[in-house]
Amino acid sequence: MGDILTQIQDELDMLLNQMFITLRYIQTSSPSAPITGQPTLPPLASDPSQPDPNTNPANPPTTSKAEFTHQIAEFAQDIVTKEQQLEILFDALPGMGISEKEQRERMEALQGELEGVEEKRREAGAVREGLVEKVERGIIGVRGG
């Protein structure tokens, strides 16, 4: 698996996807309710110019109230679980619970360590160049001799 930030991004994408799916389910499956103060109109199913809501894919068949409530509870539990997983990842981020001064000191120590490693790399590069020259001289000596 990737680094912690990639994991957080992936989990956040999944959380937002779950939220979208939940909102879409509520939009398409929630039972309609009358609005107070507004007249209630009879269904338009008798009008032949209106499509039958049971055959229109944009309006899927309605679910029972118990099934709807159960599904919403399940979606809510999934979202809470995903949020808790994100919290665990947030807590695992380096620097959590460490003061700014301690973080700066750690960064300075790592910078010094990096400079030491970089110097060793330069030295190893110089040794490599010396060995390459030696090998080239040896090859030229064998060819010429």
UniProtKB/TrEMBL annotation:
One of its GO terms (molecular function) is transcription coregulator activity. GO terms for biological process: regulation of transcription by RNA polymerase II. Keywords: Activator, Coiled coil, Nucleus, Transcription, Transcription regulation. Residues 52-63 have a biased composition (Low complexity). Gene3D superfamilies: Mediator complex, subunit Med21. It is found in: Nucleus. Residues 31-66 are annotated as: Disordered. It holds the Pfam family Med21. GO terms for cellular component: mediator complex. Its main location: nucleus. Residues 100-127 form a coiled coil. Belongs to the Mediator complex subunit 21 family. Component of the Mediator complex. Component of the Mediator complex, a coactivator involved in the regulated transcription of nearly all RNA polymerase II-dependent genes. Mediator functions as a bridge to convey information from gene-specific regulatory proteins to the basal RNA polymerase II transcription machinery. Mediator is recruited to promoters by direct interactions with regulatory proteins and serves as a scaffold for the assembly of a functional preinitiation complex with RNA polymerase II and the general transcription factors. This is Mediator of RNA polymerase II transcription subunit 21. It comes from Aaosphaeria arxii CBS 175.79.
